[in-house]
Amino acid sequence: MQPRVTIIMGSTSDLPVMESAFKFLEKYEIPFEVLALSAHRTPDEVAEYAKTAHERGIEVIIAAAGMAAHLPGVIAAMTPLPVIGVPIKSSLEGVDAALAMLQMPPGIPVATVAINGAQNAAILAMQIMANGDDTLKAKVIEHKESLKQKIVKANADLANIKDYKFKTN
């Protein structure tokens, strides 16, 4: 099975955050690979990976990083693939990482999700790939419907709360 998505972390300390992306991709049967590469500690390996990922069938790269958050930007500079950045809450509550990803120079976009927003990165990767894949498009629609159903159920549950004299619904 060939991976379609690569998840790259600056270090394995990002693993607890990024596992929600693994679980989402697993649930929707999207093959993925996981790597630890550092823009600062393994720059040659990052460059080699970024330059060749598309040749191996990778369609989207998710890159997680904290603090300076160079990893997604460096990868985006060297690949023709879409790159989704996940700012990791490590220092300054993750705001430093988010701002670094948001402030990419013209021509080097990094789609950036919320701080520690790994699941949203996986969802966005699926949506990007769904543009050319009807099977994935059906899975996107299924996922969106499941979100709707959670709210419908929540409202039904809230309507059944009868413990308050002044609650009107």
Task: Give a description of the structure.
The structure is a single chain. The chain is α/β, with parallel strands linked by helices and 169 residues long. The chain is 47% helix and 15% strand. It has six helices and five strands. It has helices at 15-27, 43-52, 70-78, 95-102, 118-130, 134-159; strands spanning 5-9, 32-36, 60-66, 83-88, 111-112. It has a five-stranded parallel β-sheet, with helices on both faces. α1 (15-27) links the parallel β1 and β2 (32-36). The chain is globular, with a radius of gyration of 19 Å.
Task: Provide key terms for this protein.
alpha/beta, 169 residues, 5-stranded parallel sheet, 5 strands, single chain, globular, 6 helices
Low-confidence stretches: none
Please bin the fraction of helical residues: 40-55%
The major β-sheet equals: 5 strands, parallel
Mean pLDDT: 95
Strand order of the largest sheet: 2-1-3-4-5
Content of β-strand: 5-15%
Sequence of secondary-structure elements:
EHEHEHEHEHH
Helix tally? Answer: 6
The dominant shape is globular
Determine the structural class based on helices, strands and strand pairing: alpha/beta
CA distance, first residue to last residue? 51 Å
Radius of gyration, CA atoms, in whole angstroms: 19 Å
The overall strand count is: 5
